[in-house]
Amino acid sequence: MADTRHTKVLIIGSGPAGYTAGVYASRAMLEPLLVQGIEPGGQLTTTTEVENWPGDTEVQGPDLMVRMEAHAKAMGCEIIGDIINDLDLSERPFTAKGDSGTTYTCDAVILATGARAKWLGLPSEEKYKGFGVSACATCDGFFYRGQEIVVIGGGNTAVEEALFLTNFASKVTLIHRRDELRAEKILIDRLMKNEKIEPLWFHTLEEVVGEDNPTGVTAVRAKHVKTGEITEIPCKGVFVAIGHAPANELVKDVLDTHMGGYVVTKPDSTETSIPGVFAAGDLTDHKYRQAVTSAGMGCMAALESERFLAEHGSPETSEVAQKETAEA
Ligand code: FAD
Ligand code: NAP
Fold first, then answer.
1. How much is the pLDDT for 314?
2. In this predicted model, what pLDDT tens digit does every residue of 272-295 receive, in sequence order?
3. Ligand 1 centre from 195 Cα, in Å?
4. pTM listed for this prediction
5. 53 within 8 A of 291, measured Cβ to Cβ
6. The one catalytic residue among 82, 106, 107, 140
7. CATH of the domain spanning 123-240, picked from 3.90.1570.10, 3.40.50.300, 3.50.50.60, 3.10.20.880
């Protein structure tokens, strides 16, 4: 028979927002359950050095997330390796279904599902995904030792990935649609000083060119945004770094969203349009999208769920809770 778990607070997501919510909700004696999802530790597990986490001049992203998990666990948060595939917010207790077959019911829920890499949507990008086209330099950079690589984008991720890839590649071409990068100044400075990196301004990716036996990338065709002129750049790897979109699949039809799918929260709050449902981190933040701001929102969400539960309590109709209490 399928397993059912009831909790006062269910936290969905294990990035900085989720784990911080786990620390605070545990310290509020709410005995939270935290479901990690497909990427335990979240986006920072796909990068190397993090230089803007207060207290650490430099820390490896995956190490930081292991520490956050351990911290949440030590405070009493139960961490569960599962993926939520359905969430019913129509009445309290809310119900979440996991890929494992477990059903989770909860009196309040903290959504911290973060964001995922965007793709350009080209048929050739799709064809060579996993065969030379990637969105994660830390994961795949190693395969391109001594090879030429292109990176698409002009934000922090694109610049960091270009810099990181110079550890392996013979040359990195950064293709950007403008002649100005939106990355932080310190990163732009490093990029400009790196002799292995050549920016190609005012260009977009038109097509990934490759071969079939074995499947692999041989070049890209880049198009000048003003003249339409095509430049072919030989390369073995293509790293797409054009931003991230909120992972809102569980709630996009039931919660208010804006700015391309970010969950709307009330001003200075993590409250969403449904009482008892809180959203934190990149899922709701179209502006800052940083580890530290996500962690801050995780803290807010836990404190707000504590206040919500103090005021509204657990729904008396919670059959599962009653059954669990009776069985205990
Ligand atoms: P995420 O970290 O995105 O985590 C989301 C979590 O939700 C994941 O654990 C995932 O498994 C889970 N999840 C999603 N769907 C489900 C589901 N259906 N069921 C259960 N769980 C689910 N920020 C900085 O401040 N400094 C940096 O140096 C920095 N470097 C970065 C480098 C890269 C390459 C990238 C991509 C981002 C970087 N960022 C950096 C941004 C930072 O990683 C994010 O702002 C932060 O991770 C957002 O935290 P989050 O908790 O909201 O979500
Ligand atoms: P981003 O800041 O949104 O930048 C996306 C880049 O891709 C932009 O330069 C954009 O061009 C370009 N782009 C978007 N769509 C495109 C398209 N269809 N074709 C070509 N180019 C396209 O995304 P990000 O760099 O992934 O960063 C996401 C968040 O994570 C940010 O808040 C960032 O600060 C944070 N982050 C922080 C760090 C750090 O602190 N060290 C590291 C990585 C990420 P335009 O500039 O022309 O719009």
1. 78
2. 999 999 999 999 999 899 999 999
3. 31
4. 0.89
5. yes
6. 140
7. 3.50.50.60
Pairing of β 33-35 and β 4-12: parallel
Question: Of 3.40.50.300, 3.50.50.60, 3.90.550.10, 3.40.190.10, which CATH number belongs to 4-117+245-327?
Answer: 3.50.50.60
**Distance, CA of 127 to CA of 120 (rounded, Å):** 12
Q: Does residue 294's CB lie within 6 angstroms of at least one atom of ligand 1?
A: yes
Cα 182 to averaged position of ligand 2 atoms, centre (Å): 7
305 close to 29: Cβ distance less than 8 angstroms: no
Whether the predicted pLDDT of 1 surpasses 60 = no
Domain-wise residue ranges, the chain: 4-117+245-327, 123-240
Q: Token pair of 279, please?
A: 């959203």
Is-catalytic flag, 139? yes
